[in-house]
From TrEMBL:
Gene name, Swiss-Prot/TrEMBL: NCB2
Any one GO molecular function term: RNA polymerase II general transcription initiation factor activity
Keywords recorded for this protein, A-Z: Nucleus
Subcellular locations according to the entry: Nucleus
Composition-biased stretches (Basic and acidic residues): 95-105
Bias (Polar residues) ranges: 138-150
Protein name: Negative cofactor 2 transcription regulator complex subunit ncb2
Keyword Nucleus: yes
Amino acid sequence: MSDYEGGPSNDDDLSLPRATVYKLIAEMLPDDVTCAKDTRDLLLDCCNEFIHLIASESNEICEKEAKKTIAAEHVLTALRELGFEKYVAEVKEAYSEHRQQQTKDRGRKTNKLKQLGMSEEELLREQELLFAQARMRFQNQTTQDQTNGSGVPGAQ
């Protein structure tokens, strides 16, 4: 079993953001239908419980495989083992979209580096130079403070 058997000490520590879930509920309902606060809270509790169930099962599968990190395949296996087979295809699709977005984000970071017009080596040299200048200013300030007799940087 996992280390999480006792439950959280504070429900908000391991909970979905309340406002976000409320917003999702409102978006899913037709415009002419409202949802009572107690109902929204119950749905939030159900969502949290579902996530904890999947996470616990995924963790157990991960531990059985002697792995230390829960991978997407562990979550998919947990869904199947818990009887949520009908969600597997949708989860795979969402995961694929997530991976594509990550790839795009990495590409943006690479483009940003290229737009600077400097190689990575040039940027590292520039960074080292800036650090050296900052060290020099700090050392000069410390020496000045000691000369003034305070012994405390910045004190007068």
